[in-house]
Amino acid sequence: MGLLHDDGSPNAPARRPRGWLRATIVAAMALVFVSAAVGFIGFLSQLRGVEIKPARNADGIVVLTGGSSRVSDAMELLASGYGKRLLISGVHPTNAASDISRSLPDSQSLLGCCVDLDRSAVNTRSNAAEARRWARERGFKSLIVVTSNYHMPRAIVELSHAMPEITLIPFAVVGDRWRDEPWWTSGVTLRLLLSEYAKYVAAELRVRLADAGIDVLPESLDQPPLPPRRPATAQAN
Hints:
The chain has a domain of 162 residues: Rossmann fold. Helices cover 49% and strands 12% of the residues. It is built from 8 helices and 5 strands; from the N terminus they run αβαβααβαβαβαα. A 5-stranded parallel β-sheet has the order 3-2-1-4-5, with helices on both faces. α2 links the parallel β1 and β2. α5 packs across α6 and α6 runs parallel beside α8.
């Protein structure tokens, strides 16, 4: 009499569901990882490696503080006639115009006539809200946006959502670190890019949900505490 395989043993039914669940979890994690990797590559493809002057002039220029040489590059664009006025968004409340003047001694005349300081913005979303208010008060229909290359994709997402009726012209500032070495050879730069990519994805998701009528984080609630005083105009974005 041959031996029969006992499929009715107590352990057999439980073993199959556990194996199926494990395989499902592994497949889902692999899909998430591949999707994130593809998305990260797409994010990197948006980052410019060299600074390119705007193809056209605009009514105004907005610079988002937080990275080296952003403000000085924006002042150069203003001096070259690319815009009528400049908004420096994200200036720390305790910093005065004289602080900026000391860091940009060659631009004092422009600072006196054609530059506005926004001290209320504390992150990229509030940068966008203040830029919207500033542009609408002046009747501006086009803006040159100045920020670091790694920050530009998220800045455009926030700004275009805040003021879809205004034409945005990006001017991406490329830092020395980006020029001096490939990003994949620097742990610091890689961590910065991964962090910025995560923030970019979160901003995209929140904006798309808001467009669908689901406001998961109302603008009035998105106001983190002010950071400690920093030199010149820097506030992190």
